[in-house]
Amino acid sequence: MALTKIEIVEEIRQKTFLSPDEARNSVEALLEIMKTTLASGEDVLISGLGKFCVKDKAARKGRNPSTEEEMILPPRRVVTFKCSGKLRDKVNG
């Protein structure tokens, strides 16, 4: 099961003794900063966790699977995540 935003807020509240509103506002502010930064095309690096990178994908040929019609898919930007060595070590062991 995935860790939810509500669970993150609760963990922060318990570990920092912030009020529920302060903890929620802190998490919301952090996520908003990350979203704004990524939307502007910049990467987000969090030491010990990893790096969120914005990558440009070129237009490419594709097809509609239900009609088999070929089409050109437009260029797009995607967000990727590369975990740090510390995180990889912790997950593996």
What are the SSEs and their pairings?
Blueprint: H1 5-16, H2 20-39, E1 44-46, E2 50-57, E3 60-63, E4 70-73, E5 76-83, H3 85-92
Antiparallel strand pairs: 1-2, 2-5, 3-4
Helix pairs in contact: 1-2
Short description:
This protein has 93 residues and is α+β, with helices and mostly antiparallel strands.
Judged by helices, strands and strand pairing, the structural class is alpha+beta
Mean pLDDT metric: 95
CATH fold call of the largest domain = HU Protein, Chain A
- Report the strand count: 5
Helix content: 40-55%
β-strand percent reads: 25-35%
Principal-axes shape call: elongated
Beginning-to-end CA distance, first to last residue: 20 Å
Over the alpha carbons, how many angstroms does the gyration radius reach?
19 Å
Any guess at the CATH architecture of the largest domain? Irregular
For the biggest β-sheet, the strand order reads: 1-2-5
CATH level-4 homologous superfamily of the largest domain: IHF-like DNA-binding proteins
Largest sheet: 3 strands, antiparallel
